[in-house]
Design brief:
With about 260 residues, the chain is α/β, with parallel strands linked by helices. Helices cover about 45% and strands about 15% of the residues. The protein has helices at about 15-25, 40-55, 75-85, 110-125, 140-150, 165-170, 190-195, 225-240, 240-255, and strands at about 1-5, 30-35, 60, 90-100, 130-135, 155, 175-180, 205. β4, α4 and β5 (about 130-135) form a beta-alpha-beta unit.
Length: about 260
């Protein structure tokens, strides 16, 4: 199994990182993509510890839309920060998470869009995939991906919670959809219906830990080991054995991120 999106270098794991990694391996988690905030030196240092303890992890680096306001005066600087960190991180495989968040609007929308655009351009230059965060901003997210990606940028919509229209648009762009613990929530029937119609060769599994712990761990800190619950829920949707779903989604991860 693969956890295609986790924040394992977050402070939430600082005190018991070794135990968290041990539980992930014991649960059958082969690899994970650890998401780093561009320019966060403390998190980058913690990521070195993660990689030393779990050499199979790979990294993604990006400026999250919540942090876009720091680059309001010069959006190109966001790309420069990410490029510098990417170039100095041998395990970096993707630009992200990047995108738009109109739910919280922690940064003005025009600033979010400008910062998002320069990072999609950077991914195109680096020939690396993007990890996309989109919340209540689907139309603008898709427009920017089409405009700046120019059909050459591949990637994933992480923690997918959208409907059939967003799923279809993402698939048309050649993107993958990544599902998280929300898939296990009792009130997520609509999401399960949408995800169940997505071809399995375009799906990834993730935890987004330490957030969004799946049932039966909901309400507590999430961790990579719990991606097993996501795999099981996805397998139930397709009427397949969890092991087969794990193998297929792992192959998708390898195809996208070239770990």
């Amino acid at each position: 199994m693969i956890d295609s999106h986790c924040h394992l270098a977050d402070e939430a794991f600082a005190e018991d990182l070794d135990a968290v990694i041990d539980r992930a391996r014991a649960a059958g988690i082969a690899r994970a993509l650890v998401i780093l905030a561009g320019g966060d030196g403390a998190e980058a240092a913690r990521a070195e510890r993660v990689a030393a303890r779990w050499p199979e992890v790979r990294l993604a680096v990006g400026v999250h839309p919540h942090s876009a306001a720091a680059f309001a005066d010069d959006s190109d600087r966001a790309a420069a920060v990410v490029r510098r960190q990417f170039d100095g991180t041998g395990l970096a495989r993707a630009v992200g998470e990047i995108g738009l968040d109109y739910h919280y609007d922690f940064a003005p929308r025009d600033v979010q869009q400008a910062v998002f655009r320069v990072q999609v351009r950077l991914a195109r230059e680096l020939d690396r995939p993007v990890v996309i965060h989109t919340r209540e901003a689907d139309d603008d997210t898709l427009t920017i991906l089409r405009d700046e990606g120019e059909g050459a940028v591949r990637g994933v919509l992480h923690c997918f919670t959208g409907g059939a229209a967003l799923a279809a648009a993402a698939l048309e762009l050649g993107f993958y959809l990544s599902v998280a613990g929300i898939l296990t929530f009792p009130k997520a029937a609509a999401l399960r219906d949408t995800v169940g119609r997505v071809p399995l060769d375009r799906v990834l599994t993730e935890t987004d830990s330490p957030y969004l712990a799946p049932v039966p761990h909901r309400g507590g800190r999430n961790e990579p080991a719990y991606v097993a619950q996501v795999v099981a829920a996805l397998a139930a949707l397709h009427g397949m054995a969890p092991g087969e779903v794990a193998a297929r989604t792992a192959a998708n991860f390898d195809a996208l991120f070239r770990p």
